[in-house]
Amino acid sequence: MRVKKTFMRACAAVGAAVVAAPAAAASLDYTVREDMRDVAAVDPAVPEDPFHARCDGDADGPALRVTVRGILMDEGNVRVQLYNHVPEEFLAKGKSLMRVTTPVRGADTPVVVCLPLKGPGTYAILAYHDRDADNKADALKEGFAISNNPRLKLRKPRHDEAAFEAGEGVTDVDITLQYLLQRSSRNKSRR
């Protein structure tokens, strides 16, 4: 019973980090914190991916090219949230610097998003597969991951587990989703 309560608290902590936003239709949905708007101005000429030039090397300034892998189902959206160097703000509601929601394009088809940065430094990322596109986190049924790909545990992930350094140019970040329910069912089938 104690393990179940601990697990439910961990799920709630991760779920609290997923702030409600309108579901993405056929293109990316970017939500940018006020203090990031100067570097994350949306290019209306390319509404499907307004920051693509940053990661293609067509614009100055640092950026992250985030590739989310391990999508198990051909449904819903993938959400990527960027956090700064402050440990207390990691996964805290309303503290992400930027949030991108994009539709899943197919099971096992990676999702790639570009996130412009104010400058080089320490950042952390949460990625989440919202299978039913309801903008609510269900850690038992939906995939989650943080940068550096540590194995997720029955607690809220720590900033130091996800923190990485971004340089002057484009920094590539690969993230592989983990599905807790699928992990436990795979383990049962091995017994």
Description of the structure:
With 191 residues, the chain is of the alpha+beta class. Helix content is 19%, strand content 28%. The chain has one domain. It contains 4 helices and 9 strands. Strands 1, 3, 4, 6, 7 and 8 form a 6-stranded antiparallel β-sheet that branches. A 3-stranded mixed β-sheet has the order 5-2-9. It starts with a helix and ends with a helix.
Q: What's this model, at a glance?
A:
With 191 residues, the chain is α+β, with helices and mostly antiparallel strands. Helix content is 19%, strand content 28%.
Write down the secondary-structure element order: HEHEEEEEEHEEH
Query: How would you characterize the largest beta sheet?
Result: 6 strands, antiparallel
- SS-based class: alpha+beta
The helix count comes to: 4
The stretches of 5 or more residues where confidence is low (pLDDT under 50) are 1-26, 42-47, 184-191
Features:
six-stranded antiparallel sheet; three-stranded mixed sheet; 4 helices; 9 strands; globular; disordered N terminus; disordered C terminus
Note the topology.
Elements: H1 2-17, E1 29-32, H2 52-56, E2 63-69, E3 77-83, E4 98-103, E5 111-116, E6 121-130, E7 144-146, H3 159-162, E8 164-166, E9 170-176, H4 180-190
Parallel strand pairs: 2-9
Antiparallel strand pairs: 1-4, 2-5, 3-4, 3-6, 6-7, 6-8
